[in-house]
Amino acid sequence: MIYHYNKILTTNNNRIMKTINIMKGILTKLTFKDFERLGIITMLIVNMIAINCALKSNNYSNDLVGVCMNKYSGIATALRNYNNGVKVENTNDLMYKYFDITNEELFYIRNENVSPEVSYDWMSGMIKQLKKFKKEKDFEEILAEYPRIAKTFDIDFDKIDGKNISSDVIEKCVDNLQEYNLNK
Predict the structure, then answer these.
(1) For residues 94 and 74, what is the distance between their CA atoms, to the nearest angstrom?
(2) What is the DSSP letter of 100?
(3) What single DSSP character describes residue 89?
(4) Mean pLDDT for the chain?
(5) What is the DSSP code string of 16-83?
(6) Of 110, 134, 136, whose CA–CA distance to 123 is shortest?
(7) pLDDT of 16-67, one tens digit each?
């Protein structure tokens, strides 16, 4: 058994040495112009890799947005009814479902998995919805089960216009989110 492994190692070492010798031979024959061309080719390859990574990242972001939108659509009708004053079957259940989605979206925002535009839209919508939920008697109790949400939206909702959320308020919430993750 040991002989077999030694033979494999010897064979691999021989291959490595042959490869090194071939590379030495190639490198000693290259001129400055060849190195210049290799530099340009290397830069092109690195740029192609960077573009490919950016495209994959964008696709990942789009996939995350799609997943979250799909989850949100499952409660959209109940939220719309709640926001329009129509009685919903179980408000606490609706808040739990909304907080679950919000918690996930905050995770993606914090880790910059979604674009700044999407982050801004999500945060704006969250603030508007939380302002509406705040009047529910079990809001604080349920919110306490979601420390990321509680810390992120530790703001004075009474001073916020429910229709137009200012950039300053969103920026404060993003700062709170960053701070929550640092202190965790």
Answers:
(1) 11
(2) H
(3) S
(4) 79
(5) HHHHHHHHHHHHHH--HHHHHHHHHHHHHHHHHHHHHHHHHHHHHHHHHHHHHHHHHHTTHHHHHHHH
(6) 110
(7) 666 666 666 665 666 666 666 666 666 666 555 665 555 445 555 667 777 8
